[in-house]
Amino acid sequence: MPKVLTLRHILVTGGNKGIGLALQQNDTFVHLGSRDQSRGDCAVASILAEVPGAANRLSSINIDVSSDDSVNAAAAGLEEPLYAIVNNAGIGFGRTIKETTNTNFLGAVRVNKVFTSKPKKPPMRIVNVASGSASNFVASLQPQSRHLFTSRFTTTADLTKHLNKIVNQQDYDNTAYGFSKALLNTYTAAHQRACPDILINSVSPGWILTDMTTGMGASNPPEVGARPILKLLFEDAEKLGRGWYFGSDGERSPLDEYREPNSPPYTPPEVGWGLPGWNWGSPVGDAHDLAMEVRNMFSTEEKRNAYEFDGDILKYTLALGLTIQAIRRPSGPGDEITKMLVAGDFSNSDADGLLLQLRNILKQPSLSLEGVLDEFNFVGGGC
Questions:
Q1: φ, ψ for residue 57 (rounded to 5)?
Q2: In what order do the strands lie in the sheet with 28-34?
Q3: pLDDT tens-digit readout, 84-112
Q4: Which of 58, 176, 281, 357 lies in the 20 to 30 Å Cα band around 366?
Q5: What phi and psi, each to the nearest 5 degrees, are found at residue 120?
Q6: Which residues pair with 200 in a beta bridge?
């Protein structure tokens, strides 16, 4: 009996002939999403003219990612479990911050939220199409502003909160596009942390000739821009990172510095409790972010009762020490906890042993971690 081919259904927002044609593999069914239904239908017709056999593996979907109603309607009309989402819809330069971010950043958030709530084919993948303008934008920021986009503790809520503060400002520097794509890159990492069962990455397609770049010197056809997207869609998951940003050559790239295509892949700096990036005692840095994360997690009795410890007690113990230090200052143990934290790398330390050190410094009775949380309630102070 011949083997029945199981198709992998892929939704592509901002679908065009280039990416649609590139995705015409024998085991894929591509749903080309377009804000303008007639343009989507034209893209499908163009593909079928070149690949007649794709007639049963291609459809056009009307979806405007800037509209909640449109995204919900599109999702309601799609019954097949998705293997992947490619958030390719975007608008270019010369728009307001609100317009640009509503499509380029919040559009992906909308699509991912709605479509991942439907039945999906595991292991599902999401590819957010970003731009080299993102890293250039982040590189132009002051360190404190840059940290929001590079910290591994930034959440989607942090990004939308920051956006809401400036969404109605004038874009005097014409940076709305780079800003929107920087939000998208950081959201990619935050979304991956929140949804570890989905493989989520972002990628720059490169300087591709599209309606958006006509007259701006771009010459590469859309098929070239599809290559790194194909890698993230179909390469063995074990060979790919999670929550990473990839350049147009399909290699990992930094969030805050432009990496030339075909140069060595980005290698992130070493992380550890005692390394400079933690910036103990500073209002900017990983230590501050982690302490604030913990304070928020346990800020009310309701949150403390609802929280289930994820097993990584050590990192919360360290953040707890820093937070308690700030709460008790200046009558508490002063800088003793900070000195303990920066004295070495505790990544392999015994959590109970570290708790004992913490209790000794604080001269507290023998408490469980939950008891310490209840004792201090995480009110007042800061890092």
A1: -135, 25
A2: 58-62, 28-34, 8-13, 82-87, 120-129, 199-203, 245-246
A3: 999 999 998 889 999 999 999 999 999 99
A4: 281
A5: -135, 160
A6: 126
